[in-house]
């Protein structure tokens, strides 16, 4: 199964030597809460604490360090929604190479600023990573700059695979590894490292990829045994919002990875809130998909009964504005933030009654919108929308039942 693959264990071991002194060995963090939930030991591999905030610097540096002197003089070009951009920019700065990086128009400001801070020239182009990639490739063809692909190159895959070597040294008893997958470079590299080492040890270690369900090109591609591009990609996990798998990663993932599963946007939001609250870790949505899969019980749904689980938190470069939205969405998805819309007769005391009911049931109102005029409102009607903090789904249902018991008809808004 390992024969004939484009990247082998020796390639990853060589990449690890090249990366000495360039990257940090990221720590493992034990999750007691998640361990209790699934009845297995769960460790987080914290690549969100890597230099430049994600695993991407590993592959970028390996790819660029192996360029010839003539290639280095021509400079490099890349495209990314953020993490690969920062990895390339940091590697280019360290190696003294000029870098031009294409990023989508809607890229998060912190990722844009960080990329420029590393000294790269940034050009905003396209509405998604695929359009930025196409433009970067055109620039490379026109100028002779070396195109540094974010995932579809042997050196990139080998660099990302060094995470697998570190993980096995830090957590030798691991039996199940989960991580996010976009184009597939990370999953492919880690799979080669872990499956190769497991074969040497005579062990079976499962490797599972996780995608956002609205950006999941791998399940249909694996089912068809061919690359199946998506017509549309829409997810808060911009780091894995890739519409077409990489050719080289696909060859490896098809042979080595045990499964690729998907998680919803709500599950992603809940996972980010969980990581903030329970593990004190800032992780971007793309880095939290593995945690979402574990929280949603997907291991049990797959019929697995692991004892020692590792989840790769691939990055921590999240836009604070997005984080605010995700936290609110995550709280709502967890039943801890409730928004209700109620139609009332316009008479004194109605709002006071509703406030009393909410207060008596120990919920906390954070916003009230009171409207007398609108296209859907009849004369004498009032519409109110109330945001409130609750203690979970059961508590939210108690509040709703109390309102209904007093004759109100609250409609839950998402």
UniProtKB/TrEMBL annotation:
This protein's cofactor list reads: pyridoxal 5'-phosphate
Q: Which GO terms describe its biological process?
A: isoleucine biosynthetic process; L-serine catabolic process; L-threonine catabolic process
Q: Which reaction does it catalyse?
A: L-threonine = 2-oxobutanoate + NH4(+)
Enumerate the Pfam families for this protein: ACT, PALP
Q: What EC number(s) does the entry state? A: 4.3.1.19
- Keywords recorded for this protein, A-Z: Lyase, Pyridoxal phosphate
Please state every residue range assigned to the domain named ACT: 339-414
Record GO terms (molecular function): L-serine ammonia-lyase activity; threonine deaminase activity
Class of this enzyme = lyase
For whether the record's keyword set contains Membrane, the answer is: no
Function noted in UniProt = Catalyzes the anaerobic formation of alpha-ketobutyrate and ammonia from threonine in a two-step reaction. The first step involved a dehydration of threonine and a production of enamine intermediates (aminocrotonate), which tautomerizes to its imine form (iminobutyrate). Both intermediates are unstable and short-lived. The second step is the nonenzymatic hydrolysis of the enamine/imine intermediates to form 2-ketobutyrate and free ammonia. In the low water environment of the cell, the second step is accelerated by RidA.
Q: Which family does it belong to?
A: Belongs to the serine/threonine dehydratase family.
Official protein name in the record: threonine ammonia-lyase
Q: Which organism is this entry from? A: Neomicrococcus aestuarii
């Amino acid at each position: 199964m390992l024969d004939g693959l484009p990247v082998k264990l020796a390639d990853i071991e060589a990449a690890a030597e090249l990366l000495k002194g360039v990257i940090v060995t990221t720590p493992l963090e034990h999750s007691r809460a998640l361990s209790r939930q699934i009845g297995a030991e769960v460790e987080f591999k914290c690549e969100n604490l890597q230099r430049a905030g994600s695993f991407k610097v590993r592959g970028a540096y390996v790819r660029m360090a192996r360029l010839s002197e003539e290639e280095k003089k021509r400079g490099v070009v890349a495209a990314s929604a953020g993490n690969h951009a920062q990895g390339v920019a940091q590697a280019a700065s360290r190696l003294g190479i000029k870098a031009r990086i294409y990023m989508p128009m809607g890229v998060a400001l912190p990722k844009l600023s960080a990329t420029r801070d590393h000294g790269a020239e940034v050009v905003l182009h396209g509405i998604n990573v695929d359009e930025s990639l196409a433009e970067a490739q055109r620039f490379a063809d026109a100028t002779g700059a070396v195109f540094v692909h974010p995932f579809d190159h042997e050196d990139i895959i080998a660099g990302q695979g060094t995470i697998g070597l570190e993980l096995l040294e830090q957590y030798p008893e691991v039996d199940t590894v989960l991580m996010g997958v976009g184009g597939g470079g990370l999953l492919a590299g880690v799979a080669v490292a872990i499956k190769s080492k497991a074969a040497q040890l005579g062990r079976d270690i499962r490797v599972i990829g996780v995608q956002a369900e609205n950006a999941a090109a791998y399940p249909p591609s694996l089912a068809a045994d061919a690359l199946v591009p998506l017509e549309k990609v829409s997810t808060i996990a911009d780091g894995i919002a890739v519409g077409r798998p990489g050719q080289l990663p696909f060859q490896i993932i098809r042979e080595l990875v045990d499964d690729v599963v998907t998680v919803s946007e709500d599950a992603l939001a809940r996972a980010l809130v969980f990581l903030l609250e329970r593990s004190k870790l800032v992780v971007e949505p793309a880095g939290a998909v593995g945690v979402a899969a574990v929280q949603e019980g997907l291991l049990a749904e797959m019929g697995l009964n692991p004892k020692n689980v590792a989840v790769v938190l691939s990055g921590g470069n999240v836009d604070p504005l997005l984080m605010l939205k995700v936290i609110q969405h995550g709280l709502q998805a967890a039943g801890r933030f409730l928004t209700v819309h109620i139609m009332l007769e316009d008479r004194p005391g109605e709002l006071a009654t509703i406030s009393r009911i909410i207060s008596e049931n120990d919920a906390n109102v954070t916003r009230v919108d009171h409207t007398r005029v609108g296209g859907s409102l009849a004369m004498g009607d009032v519409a109110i929308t109330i945001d409130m903090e609750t203690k979970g789904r059961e508590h939210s249902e108690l509040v709703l039942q109390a309102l209904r018991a007093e004759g109100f008809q609250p409609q839950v808004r998402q």
